[in-house]
Amino acid sequence: MSELASESISTARPLQLEVSDLRVQIAGHQGVVRPIDGVSLEIAPGEAVGLVGESGSGKSMTLKSILGLLPPDAKVTSGSVVFDGTDLTRLSPSRLNKVRGRRIAMIFQEPMSALNPVMRVGNQIAEGPRVHLGLSRAQSVARAVDLMRRVGIPEPERRFRAYPHEFSGGMRQRVMIAMALSCDPELILCDEPTTALDVTIQDQILRLLAQLCHESGTSLMFVTHDLPVVAQVCHKVAVMYAGRIVERGTVSEVFSQPLHPYTLDLLRSAPDVDHPGQSLVPIPGMPPSLVSPPSGCRFHPRCQFAEDDCKVSDPPLRLLEGDRATACLHFERCLDQIGTN
Amino acid sequence: MSAVSAAPAPAPAPAPAAAPVRARRARWYRQPTLMAGLVLLAIILFMCYGAPLLTTFNPDTQNLLQPLLGVGQGGHLLGTDQEGRDTFARLLYGGQVDLRVAVIAVIFPFILGTILGSLAGYFGGWVDAIIMRIIDIVVAFPFFVLVIALVFVLGTGEKSIYIAITAVGWVSYARITRGEITVAKRQEYVLAAQSGGLSSLRIIGRHLLPNVVTQSIVYAMSDIVQDILAIVTLSYLGLGIQPPTPDWGTMISAGQNFLTTQWQLTTIPGLAVVITGLALSLVGDGLADLLRTGTS
After folding, report:
1. Does A232 fall in a domain?
2. Which chain A residue's Cα is nearest to B192?
3. Of A27, A109, B44, B194, whose CB neighbour count within 10 A is largest?
4. Do residues A283 and A269 make contact, with C-beta atoms less than 8 angstroms apart?
5. Whole-model pTM?
6. What is the mean pLDDT of chain A?
């Protein structure tokens, strides 16, 4: 695994962010959609947590709901997002703005569209410190140049005045990282930050992000569908399926001993450098419709171990030893499956 | 952003560093509409504001011994009007007044419309509903009828013209800006700005408006033409610029009594309105073309 993931994190530390039973619904044309249906997550200071799942599993939506950035037609119906003792879902817009960018920053998937095309990159980086830290123009410019140097942008004094279109994809994502770090946040939310980049750049960006967060003790919440990325950056991982978390645990535990058939299938459908030549097994079927999700366990129509009771009873996320949790009624079968391979 | 300059970023060949600049400059010069408009406008501006260099006559000095002289008579290039004032001098000094009032009359509705339009577009909901209903009411009246009625109520003079044109003209800018902002606010950079904890007003002012204001600027060019027409019309009706201040509208209206004998008294200021309108329209169209190819 990675340099970061190998570090042991004590579970006794106070939680920094606690998402409890979060539910979001969107009133759509075909009925009410519940993209997030009872998600609970926690992050301790300095920890990096990965949130993985297929497209439409609600992982991005979960991330956005933490900072109240849901689209106008979506709303949080129940649950809480407690950050440092305050429930962010109940904050007024102006008080929420004091958390956004200042204490919790966010990095987006597409660095081209997430940067303002007609504003100089340096000014975009300097804006946060000016607004949140009350720096003067000169101070914020100096800070932006320093940040650009820290994220590895060559000739920051000159590049300060460049526009986003003059930068390559990797450089733009470095700008996004500099923006996220600009006010020394306690937590950075990353929404698939490397998906739009090619693999070599992806690796550079991930290393940079992990290193900078490690240096400053910043926690990281990392949304991706890319399992190797989670393994490289995160300590813990939560697997989402159809708006729910189906499995949770440390990266090493979940990846070596998945306790949910969906996680097992996910791992088998991704290439593994340690076992080249192993054939990839696609997951049959499609993610379920969130308008009318399947009864019982939402994964049962695609599950290889599904029994009759899976179709009826809706399994909650059960806590096992340590931080390990699974929502599968027959998780022992996964262990058997690994044993036979 | 510019499609041309977006292409070469890390410079593989030796030339690209200078290439985008040269391409943009070439495009700028190769725009015949814009160039024609700019040249024409430059000539008009030079003639109006360089009037003391072009004529020695005072536009307000009457010479009742030499009224209604024809073109070229008595040393008057375009003759004199019924009070013996030099037509050429009045044409040039009148242009100063009309152009100044038109430009100022475009700035106020531009500002008001852009502010209200961006609020409506960004916040949506009831803010949008209220602003849009007000726009519907204003649009329900023909532009000239409403402007003339307002000036009539407010009393004649420059200030009334500004108020009337602002009260009626802002709706176009509001509609343009609202439409543009409604689209632009869905861009990810707006979400990114929100996630950075920036206030709504800051996001509108610093992030959205610089991205969308070009459309309003292009429209403002054609709006100046409409404003010149409005000012000339108001003056023609006696509601605008008041005599003895020279202005094209009053010149046309005063000259129409002598149309059969001294046709140049109405035709020449009329032509001046047409040519100025043409110049500004060309600039507006050229600018629109330039920005259209520049964006996307």
Report:
1. yes
2. A114
3. B194
4. yes
5. 0.81
6. 87
Beta-bridge partner residues of B44: none
**How far off is chain A from B199, nearest CA to CA, in Å?**
7
B106 touches B172 (CB < 8 A):
no
B11 touches chain A (CB under 8 A): no
Chain A contact set for B198 (CB, 8 A): 97, 101, 127, 131
Specify if A278 maps to a domain: yes
* Residues of B with Cβ-Cβ distance to A113 under 8 angstroms: 187-189
Cβ-Cβ contacts under 8 Å, A105 against chain B: 195-196
Chain A residue numbers touching B210 (CB-CB < 8 A): 116, 118-119
**Separate counts of helices (H) and strands (E) for chain B:** 13, 0
Distance of residue A153 Cα from the nearest chain B Cα, in angstroms: 13
Rg for chain A, CA atoms, rounded: 21
Tell me: pLDDT of A11 over 70: no
Contacts of B9 in chain A (CB under 8 A): 165-168
Report CB contact under 8 Å: B188, A98.
no
Mean pLDDT over A237-263 rounds to 91
A6 inside domain: no
Q: Which of A154, A180, A206 is the last residue of a domain?
A: A180
Cβ neighbours around A197 below 10 Å, total: 21
Could you report the predicted ipTM of this complex, rounded to two decimals?
A: 0.86
Burial (CB < 10 A; 0-12, 13-18, 19+), residue B32, is exposed
Same domain (yes/no): A194, A212: yes
Same domain for A49 and A188: yes
Q: Which residues of A touch B (CB under 8 A)?
A: 67, 69, 72, 94, 96-102, 105-106, 108, 110, 113-119, 127-128, 131-132, 163-168, 176, 179, 189
Owning domain of residue A159? 115-180
Q: A192 and A145, same structural domain?
A: no
Q: Which of B175, A132, B20 is nearest to B28 (CA)?
A: B20
Nearest Cα residue to B244 out of B67, B72, B93, B103: B93
Asked if residue A122 and residue A86 are part of one domain, the reply reads no
State pLDDT tens for residues B71-91: 888 788 888 888 889 999 999
Q: How far is B30 from chain A (nearest CA, A)?
A: 25
Please return the burial class of B131, using the count of CB atoms within 10 Å of its CB with bins 0-12, 13-18 and 19+.
Answer: buried
Of A161, A180, A199, the residue at which a domain comes to its end is: A180
Total domains in the fold of chain A: 2
Identify any residues that bridge with A28 across adjacent strands, giving them in sequence order.
A31
Contacts of B170 (CB under 8 A, 6+ apart): B108, B109, B112, B113, B116, B138
Give percent of chain A with pLDDT exceeding 90: 48
Residue A294, domain CATH: 3.40.50.300
pLDDT score of B202 more than 90: yes
Cα nearest neighbour of B203 on chain A:
A116
List, in order of start, the domains of chain B with CATH numbers: 32-294 (1.10.3720.10)
Cβ neighbours of A187 in B, within 8 Å? none
pLDDT at A2: 43
Whether pLDDT at A136 is above 80: yes
Say yes or no: A129 and A276 in one domain.
Answer: no
